Amino acid sequence: MSAQTPPAPASRSAARDRLVTAAAGIFYTDGIHSVGVDRLIAAAGVTKATFYRHFPSKEDLVLAYLRLRDEAIRAEIDRAAAAASDPRGQVASVMEWLAAEVCGPGFRGCPFINAAAEYPEPDHPVRQLVAEHRAWFRETLAGLLRAAGHPAPEAAAASLLLARDGAMVGGYLDGSDARATLLRTADALMAHVGD
After folding, report:
1. d(CA 22, CA 37)
2. Residue 166: is it exposed, middle or buried by C-beta count within 10 angstroms (0-12/13-18/19+)?
3. For residues 160 and 99, what is the distance between their CA atoms, to the nearest angstrom?
4. Per-residue pLDDT for 123 more than 60?
């Protein structure tokens, strides 16, 4: 395996988009390793030749699925932050969006945590993409916290990421009060900002 995640394919087609969309639903619901290429082909309504023209291997499709999820999460975080006019409100808005994701309809946990569980090798391209997403997310949180005047934005971002991870897993496993706990954790981390 190479040390870098392969770049995203530049060309897009309707068939490729159908494959990625079908894979996103199936992988998220049923897992990655348990799903065969024939099922993905049937769900997307494409031929085997079309599948392999766009994705030389199933793992290439897995990477495309995770890139799609990454893009969607980045867009949602940007929207959530833009919904507030001040930095402290941006942190709260992002955390409220994250909390709303926990235990929503069809919730099956974090797609990145789920993928990491199926790809335990840290140098595998899937794990590298997971690591890139998490690094972006941690830095995004740190940037929001920095702008809000938090005295230790990197440490607080790491704590929020860990709380979010726990809420994602706890919310999926037992439907506990993961949402409320996540928001309480964020409130506690922000309690002395601006004092």
Report:
1. 11
2. middle
3. 11
4. yes
Query: 35 near 42, Cβ under 8 Å?
Result: no
Q: What's the pLDDT at 4?
A: 53
Tokens, residue 159? 């704590």
**What gap in Å lies between CA 141 and CA 95, rounded to an integer?**
10
Distance CA 193, CA 146 (A): 10
Domains delineated in the chain: 11-56 (1.10.10.60), 59-190 (1.10.357.10)
- pLDDT tens per residue, range 129-186: 999 999 999 999 999 999 999 999 999 999 999 999 999 988 888 766 888 899 999 9
User: Any alpha helices (H) in the chain, and if so which ranges?
Assistant: 14-30, 37-44, 48-54, 58-82, 87-101, 111-118, 125-147, 153-174, 178-190
Give the N- to C-terminal CA distance of the chain in Å, as an integer.
Answer: 49
Q: Which residue has the tokens 């808005």?
A: 93
